[in-house]
From TrEMBL:
Keywords: Hydrolase, Metal-binding, Metalloprotease, Plasmid, Protease. The lineage of its organism: Bacteria, Pseudomonadati, Pseudomonadota, Alphaproteobacteria, Rhodospirillales. Coiled coil: none annotated. InterPro entries: Creatin/AminoP/Spt16_N, Creatinase/aminopeptidase-like, Creatinase_N, Pept_M24, Pept_M24_MAP, Peptidase_M24B, Peptidase_M24B_aminopep-P_CS. GO terms for molecular function: aminopeptidase activity; metal ion binding; metalloexopeptidase activity. PROSITE patterns: PROLINE_PEPTIDASE. It holds the Pfam family Creatinase_N. GO terms for biological process: proteolysis. This is X-Pro dipeptidase.
Amino acid sequence: MSIGGSTAEAELASLATIDRSGQRPPAIQPAEHAARIERALRLMEEMGAGTLLITAGASLRYFTGVPWGATERLVALLLRRGRRPSMICPAFELGSLKEVLAVDADILLWEEDESPAELLASAVAGYGTLALDPAAPFLLFSNLRAITPALKVVDATPVVDGCRARKSATELALLSYAKGLTLDIHRRAASILHPGIRASAVKRFIDQAHRAVGADNGSTFCAVQFGVASSFPHGIPGDQELAEGDIVLIDTGCQIDGYHSDITRTYVFGEPSAEQRRIWAIEHEAQAAAFAAARPGQTCESVDYAARAVLERYGLGPDYKLPGLPHRTGHGIGLQIHEGPYLVRGDKTILAPGMCFSNEPMIVMPGAFGIRLEDHMYITEDGAAWFTEPSPSIDKPFG
């Protein structure tokens, strides 16, 4: 597909004719959730924690299949060494919980006029150290500390990241499928561009297209930036109108059974200038350098260094100075669009097979334009592999 020449209506109609039956990977099964809990119990033992509490959010979904977001009411998984898993839940939500819970667990209920912190304090009494979800609300910690000041509470990040950072084959398949859908929608979005189209119209099309291909809830996010707006990594207010010669930067993604895509493409509507070509080529080279550096046994920060070394050879930067790369090279991805570990200076996490990252060493030219090429990769036994192939050239951004 080329840039321009089609319409939103034509592309949506085309998507409706595609038979995707049999293509979508299977969802995470109860046996995999159970294996995750067993691994968490082993990691708890290694860190000397008798109990672990995982509150509502991505980690709760990871371990139990419960897709609920956090609210002021405590919903959580409680693991106690030597005991069956338990779920803490408001009593009036019991029926809804049973519909989504993917693991065999005891249920600990609390009523609206009761304190869930008191229920938790009673449940962990005698087990020693509590490893607390790093995403847990501070109010829960504060209330628990007031009730049982002698309880030792530690950060559960080693358990959470120790389980979630390395993706299984099933997770990789879901991530790959989501990213493939989004890349196809990127191609189609480029084909509907024309002079005068507004960013909002492109965003609307991308959301409709994500819904048409069966994403969980349409686009999880969508940034469409034209011209100077592309020089702001997350855009600026306003609804830009496309003009000939503008840089087009589109960053969007979706979810499939909770697993995220997040892909950025940058190209020019019309004939690129010499400077646009130069910076696009440097960005492409930096992305390739980061990919080559992403090998098991290396540190996360070494990938960031590799991308920045390319930019510095061309007089960009150094560090976060502009013109150059103002942010990290990449982030982990899975059930959260941004999750640890991160490809950034200071993150000395050792890369290991199954880890998944964005690769997006953006170049910002202040007051002019920005170029971000973002694809995702996963670590294998002997290097890295792409989920989606990078954009080949500024003239043919989709090959």
